[in-house]
């Protein structure tokens, strides 16, 4: 900038400051801007309220709980299959179905699953966990009981994400319920059911007759989560309402892009995490011969 141009600028600046009308106009503009900002903020708050309502709706029917689990599991260092199954280090998870990973039955006919809960959980969260366990005790012969000196047991802690091993692993086995993302009754039941030996419904050997997997909508690196497994279906029908079924947008490349679509009726609800379905309970009773 040349000295004369600088001088001119200073002069103009001085003039504009000195001009009362100009000042008033600027003030008006500032006020307008503030009002506009307030309106934008109001709108944003309303949007947030709408989002909150939508979230609550989804909580109520549980449709988006899979997303919750998967979101909670983002960033975990554990090697997970299908989003929340701990990759087995010592055995092949697929063989768990064939009785090698079942929990043992006591002489009174009850299947005892010993557990410990980390002191990370405050008492109201421990109560939530115990509440989820009671959902099994009420209608099956499975009893989650505080561990005394048993060798095989589940150790529930708040690690990164919600995940479990598949079936009884032998010794201490971890089950994670992150305090920030997994403390929902249905999510806890889902992980406990993995620990009993149940896989995801949509990986059933016969799933292609009941759901369409939209491979183009699946994040490429996550496609392995949709491989079919050699599951023991216990002669029970495919269950869209299973607590083990993923929601329609699990591992999706984009908002609202479905990865799993029920067929032939695409409107059938999937992905609920309200609680064990009738068939979930029936299967526990069949697998464990309750
Ligand atoms: Zn799962």
TrEMBL record:
SUPFAM superfamilies for the chain: Metalloproteases ('zincins'), catalytic domain
Cofactor(s), names only, from the UniProt record: Zn(2+)
Keyword list, A-Z: Coiled coil, Cytoplasmic vesicle, Disulfide bond, Glycoprotein, Hydrolase, Metal-binding, Metalloprotease, Protease, Signal, Zinc, Zymogen
One GO cellular component term noted in the UniProt record for this chain: zymogen granule
Stretch forming the signal peptide: 1-18
Active-site feature positions: 191
Main location: other
Cellular location(s): Zymogen granule
One example of a Gene Ontology biological process annotation: proteolysis
Any one GO molecular-function label of the UniProt entry: metalloendopeptidase activity
Coiled coil: 21-53
Enzyme class: hydrolase
Domain Peptidase M12A as annotated: residue spans: 92-290
The keyword Cell division is assigned to this record: no
The enzyme's E.C. designation: 3.4.24.-
Binding-site list for Zn(2+): 190, 194, 200
The keyword Ubl conjugation is assigned to this record: no
Any Pfam family hit: Astacin
Gene3D superfamilies: Collagenase (Catalytic Domain)
Cofactor detail note: Binds 1 zinc ion per subunit.
Classification via PANTHER family: DISCOIDIN, CUB, EGF, LAMININ , AND ZINC METALLOPROTEASE DOMAIN CONTAINING, HATCHING ENZYME 1.2-RELATED
Stated name of the protein: Metalloendopeptidase
């Amino acid at each position: 900038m040349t000295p004369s141009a600088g001088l001119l600028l200073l002069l103009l600046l001085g003039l504009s400051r000195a001009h009362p009308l100009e000042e008033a106009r600027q003030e008006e503009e500032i006020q307008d801007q503030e009002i506009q900002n307030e309106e934008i903020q109001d709108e944003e708050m309303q949007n947030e309220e709408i989002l909150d309502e939508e979230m609550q709706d989804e909580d109520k029917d549980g449709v988006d709980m899979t997303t919750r689990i998967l979101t909670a599991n983002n960033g975990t260092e554990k090697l997970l299959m299908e989003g929340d199954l701990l990759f087995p280090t010592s055995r092949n998870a697929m063989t768990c179905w064939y009785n090698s990973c079942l929990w043992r039955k006591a002489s009174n006919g009850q299947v005892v699953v010993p557990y410990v809960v980390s002191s990370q959980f405050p008492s109201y969260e421990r109560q939530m966990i115990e509440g989820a366990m009671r959902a099994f005790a009420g209608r099956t012969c499975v009893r989650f009981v505080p561990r005394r000196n048993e060798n095989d047991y589940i150790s529930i802690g708040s690690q990164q994400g919600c995940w479990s091993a598949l079936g009884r692993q032998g010794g201490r086995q971890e089950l994670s319920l992150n305090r920030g993302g997994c403390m929902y009754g249905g999510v806890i039941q889902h992980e406990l059911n993995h620990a009993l030996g149940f896989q995801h419904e949509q990986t059933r050997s016969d799933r292609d007759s009941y759901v369409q997997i939209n491979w183009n909508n699946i994040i490429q690196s996550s496609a392995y989560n949709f491989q079919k497994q050699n599951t023991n279906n216990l002669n029970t029908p495919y269950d869209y309402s299973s607590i083990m079924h993923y929601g329609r947008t699990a591992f999706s490349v984009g908002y609202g892009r479905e990865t799993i679509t029920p067929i032939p009726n695409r409107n059938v609800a999937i992905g609920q995490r309200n609680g064990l379905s009738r068939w979930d309970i029936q299967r526990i009773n069949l697998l464990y011969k309750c």
